[in-house]
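Late entry, written up from scratch paper. The run itself happened at the end of the previous shift, but nothing got recorded in the book at the time, so transcribing now.
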Amino acid sequence: MREPPAEILRRLRPIPTVGPPTTVPRDVVGVGTDGAARRVDIETAGEPVVLLFLSSGCLGCRDLWQGLVELQGFLAGVARLAVVTHDPGQEDPAAIAHLVGEARDRPEIEVVMSSDAFTHYRVGGPPFVVVAAADAVRTEGVAWGLEETARLALEAAQRRGPRR
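Output as recorded:
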């Protein structure tokens, strides 16, 4: 009997990182899908910021793109949500704007195109999530589906300092 691929994927879980994150929190600077300069303040932020690294060509990112409003709802009052993609040239701004969908009308969901952020936060590829605050990068790892990403982000955002 052959199992459907969706069933196999539903049972997979991310491989946990070993030890606390060592990345120093840093603001994310780049551009929006409209080409205007964008900055996600982290170093002076009063609350944690969930950096969700996504790509328009990432099939594993689709549920996260479609669930941005729902994810922000989970985080409301606990953390801000910022979607980070690579720079224009590596990503198509129009494709990103399309994927952001109804979330583009939500000021609490920031979207920034910044390949420098991928480098600084050592993101090898999407989907990846980093919960950063002025005091520390609290967690980093694979963003595995909407519910698991929300659980990981909330847990990290409510904790002080990096995961021990």
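Helices lie at 5-11, 62-66, 68-75, 93-100, 115-120, 146-157.
(Scratch paper discarded after transcription.)
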